[in-house]
Write a structure and sequence with these properties.
Strand order of the largest sheet: 3-2-4-7-1-8-9
Number of strands: 9
CATH topology: Rossmann fold
CATH superfamily: P-loop containing nucleotide triphosphate hydrolases
Order of helices and strands: EHEHEHHEHEEHEHEE
Strand content: 15-25%
Radius of gyration: 16 Å
Distance between the termini: 11 Å
Length: 189
């Protein structure tokens, strides 16, 4: 099951998603962090985010790209504690934070700019694969489409890719929540 949490910058979407996961019944609560540590600012933000998660019961997995690889990490951590059937039924929840970072990391890496269509397909396939291995997948994503600014071609391609992925996930999600000024608005349940 997918829950998609959507909102603008500093809207409270991440706090809402964390609270949702922390209040869940699942024994294993994974935080799948997608921020890439490319410079001092991002390294500082990652450290701040780690501190904010302390004491919340998260098992942090860091995968800036190729989130399919997190499945092996989850399996290694959970092995021996539950049968696969039990784990899929009620054992683990994953919070993916956040889709906008993941899309950027997949499109712009190793000094290359990858095709948006390929990135969309790859990310959606990996989301489906991850979803099939956990009880619940909570995905945080950004609304970056209302600023009215004209961007260069690469940034426009990124925005279109993020928008396409957001739309596909919204259709697949069992629950869709928009968070605005800290207030969650359930759009689909």
């Amino acid at each position: 099951m997918i829950t998609l949490v959507y909102g603008g910058t500093s809207s409270g979407k991440s706090a809402y998603a964390e609270d949702l996961v922390c209040s869940s019944k699942y024994q294993y609560r994974f935080y799948l962090a997608t921020m890439s540590a490319n410079d001092e600012e991002s390294k500082s933000r990652i450290q701040r985010h780690r501190k904010l998660r302390e004491g919340k019961g998260f098992i942090t997995l860091e995968h800036a790209r190729d989130i399919r690889n997190s499945i092996g990490d989850i399996e290694r951590i959970c092995t021996g504690n539950f049968s696969t059937e039990d784990l899929n039924a009620n054992g683990r929840i994953v919070l993916l934070e956040c889709m906008s970072n993941l899309v950027a990391n997949e499109m712009f890496c190793d000094g290359e700019i990858y095709d948006a269509g390929h990135c969309i397909e790859k990310i959606i396939d990996e989301i489906k694969e991850l979803e099939s291995q956990v009880s619940e997948l909570v995905i945080v994503t950004n609304n970056v489409f209302e600023d009215g600014i004209t961007y260069d071609t690469e940034t426009e391609d990124y925005l279109k890719a993020l928008g396409t992925i957001n739309s596909k996930l919204a259709k697949e999600a069992a629950k869709l929540v928009e968070v605005s000024v800290g207030i969650p608005i359930v759009l689909k349940e």
